[in-house]
């Protein structure tokens, strides 16, 4: 009985480890999409906000960035993962030809899914992009709007970093710090360069 329980526990442990490895494909696409949506949309809005204080211009810029970015992420992820799928299928076919006696099919769950990766990437990008859009939508005062967007994006960057690290069993502090510093740099550089160009009269 004890041996049977030990065997069941071992199988459960191996199942958990396998689940984490299977998460890698959609988790990578989702975390990448969310971070890109958050940072790129916030940076666009900050850049426009550096030279135009009009809330309408800022919101329209953010919305255009959301739509364009989500489409771009989905297409790019689909093409990338489909290429990976072709390579893995071709490799599996070559291995089957070497082992003439093995007529079994590949485990389709182990193969990358281009549609799943594209959908996850586009959805995550849109979710991330909604953070600065919602933060800016209801604040007319320019300086307050900029500060609220910055604060909301900072919180979201930490949350996405923590979520990605937790689901992927990675170091939380390191992941959050990397995501946060990268986001701050992107917003700061975009704001500063756009402000410089805008004030120079170009």
TrEMBL record:
Keywords: Ion transport, Iron, Iron transport, Membrane, Transmembrane, Transmembrane helix, Transport, Vacuole. GO terms for biological process: intracellular manganese ion homeostasis. GO terms for cellular component: vacuolar membrane. Signal peptide: none annotated. It catalyses: Fe(2+)(in) = Fe(2+)(out). It is found in: Vacuole membrane. Its main location: membrane. It comes from the Eukaryota. The chain crosses the membrane at residues 57-75, 115-139, 146-167, 179-198. It is a multi-pass membrane protein. The keyword S-adenosyl-L-methionine does not apply. GO terms for molecular function: iron ion sequestering activity; iron ion transmembrane transporter activity; manganese ion transmembrane transporter activity. PANTHER family: FE(2+)/MN(2+) TRANSPORTER PCL1. Vacuolar Fe(2+) uptake transporter. Belongs to the CCC1 family. This is Vacuolar iron transporter. The lineage of its organism: Eukaryota, Viridiplantae, Streptophyta, Embryophyta, Tracheophyta.
């Amino acid at each position: 009985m004890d041996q049977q329980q030990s065997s069941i526990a071992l199988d459960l442990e191996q199942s958990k480890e396998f689940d984490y490895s299977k998460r890698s494909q959609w988790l990578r696409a989702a975390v990448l999409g969310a971070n890109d949506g958050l940072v790129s949309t916030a940076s666009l809005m900050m850049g426009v906000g550096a030279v135009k204080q009009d809330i309408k211009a800022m919101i329209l810029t953010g919305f255009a960035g959301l739509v364009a970015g989500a489409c771009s992420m989905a297409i790019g992820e689909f093409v990338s993962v489909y290429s990976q799928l072709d390579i893995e299928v071709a490799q599996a076919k070559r291995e089957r030809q070497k082992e003439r006696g093995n007529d079994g099919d590949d485990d389709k769950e182990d193969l990358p899914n281009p549609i799943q990766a594209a959908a996850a990437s586009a959805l995550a990008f849109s979710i991330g992009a909604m953070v600065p859009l919602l933060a800016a939508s209801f604040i007319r005062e320019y300086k307050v709007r900029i500060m609220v967007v910055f604060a909301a994006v900072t919180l979201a960057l930490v949350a996405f970093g923590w979520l990605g690290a937790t689901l992927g069993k990675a170091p939380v502090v390191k992941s959050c710090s990397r995501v946060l510093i990268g986001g701050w740099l992107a917003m700061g550089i975009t704001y500063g360069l756009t402000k410089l160009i805008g004030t120079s009269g170009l």
